[in-house]
# Entry
Amino acid sequence: MSTMTVDKAGPTRNVKYGSMSRDRAWALRWSYFFLVLFAIFSLVPPFYMLITSLKGSAEISAATNPWWVFHPTLENYVALLSSNQFLRFFFNSAMVSIIVVIITMLISIPAAFALSRMKFWGSATLATGVFLTYLIPDSLLFIPLFKMFALIGDVTGIQLINRWYVLLFIYPTLTVPFCTWIMIGYFASIPKELDEAAIIDGASWLQTLTRIFIPVALPGLIAATIFAFTVSWAQFLYPLVFTTSADQLVLPVGIVTTLIKGDVFNWGQIMTGALLGAAPPLIIYAFLMDYYIAGLTAGATKG
Amino acid sequence: MVDAAIGETSVPRPRKAAGRSGLRKALKRKSTSAFLMTLPLILLIALLVIYPAFYSVHLATLNKSMQRFVGFGNFEFLFKRDTFWLVVKQSCIFAISAVLFKALIGFIVAHFVHNIPAKGQRKWRGMLLVPWVIPPAMSTLAWLWLFDPSYSAFNYTLSFFGIGPIPWTGDAAWARFSVILVNVWYGAPFFMIMYLAALKSVPDQLYEAAAIDGANWWQRIWYVTLPMMRNIIAITTLFSLIVTFANFDIVRILTAGGPLDKTHIFATWAFRVGIEGSDIPLGASVSLFMVPILAVAAIFILRDVNKRGNES
# Structure
């Protein structure tokens, strides 16, 4: 009886092993096939930006294969990088993004430290409130904010509308809540013994923050910085509403409003501008991918 | 063991000896400095988020020149306009179908990435996340150029398959499709990354147990993967629903609401009416219609966040 079952089980088992590994091989092959498809889908627009940016205007309007460059030229890059207007957009974008990152860090690190370690009346509610603020979208606030800043201009005479630095007040509303939220998560994961030891050794709260929390939570800090920078760099709605003069625009709005003149689309320059505008976040992403992804997933997995 | 016990009992003793007032003062100082450290955050949120939100409600009750209180006049006006109901319908179609496809594609791609050997995953993940990294305003310009009516790279390619020129942004139905397509392209990588992180956290033993019980791949997904990822799926979907519902850049650049307002959603229409049409109260009323759905999504997200906060 027992020998029979063994005999029976032997071959079927072998067959099963064979089919399973064959299944796995096929699953792998299908996985790669679909991954290639999705990668093409993901990379077509940036690839097409690059292709078009290398074309002259004659080649763009010619009826040749649009997916290939037959006469590569750098004339679009030369035209944009020697145009004061475009450099001005780039400068405005860089200034706004860098200053917003600094403001964000100055506000959110102390706040996250206080909310994660120094319990005080209402601190738990405030932490939840910070997260809730992060869920309020820009498209809900741009009209009242615009009216508010226009009123400030009317009442005090300080004209903030149509100045690039007005964005320094507005952007932190997008960056600070999320950065505070993920910093709370990172700070909370630091063992209490570490800062208790520092306090026993006579460190002040400020010293605990700068000597222990910031160095230990540095990966979180980098992730938050990347988030703040990319959000400020990519923001489109607020600068579109708040700035109109050509010398006050930031890059995304500048490209959309000045390179499209009426119905005339100078596609070579638009694509070059778009690629140059996409370059800083892409470069940061290429070098700091793990931090970037950590920041991305922290929002939902921390808490 | 003995040392630890001695340490524990001996620590509070000197504090008690120091006297109650000193302790209280220290506590007071700690909470004051904590409050001061959060003050910039509180000010920022109060002045630039909460105040404008309520100011928006106030603005919505004024007439166009903002001198007279009209109560619900703006809302009554909106309810009578066909364009408004078109915008409501389009916003819902846009948000729901875009989020659905983003979630579906993100889930499928995350599985494929998870399937392949671990050392190749980083490279694929890196490539697949590129759409999320490029500022949407910039990538939408590339899509606009791909959709261009006369030099469209898509129509050029499709012509080889005998498919006639498609009016990607010119025809109402196709324009809606294009807007959703670009949004799915931009947002699916976010889902992919979230799901991938969740997939990595499912213990292998569960799959082994399921395989021993003879579960096929579909049963493994349905009975192991999905229940384990339920939280992440819910929170990512709700979060994306908020972001997609409030989307502005993609629609604005790709179609600007056209043709004939057939692709306007709340944000773009509020911009058109409020800023371009300089009827700020009406624009504020339009954008306020986003609040109910955002509030519902936010409540669900908060419930989930608090639940997990209590667990940990």
Q: What stands out?
A: The CA atoms of residues 24 and 70 of chain B lie 54 Å apart. Chain B has a mean pLDDT of 81. Chain B touches chain A through 96 residues (CB under 8 Å).
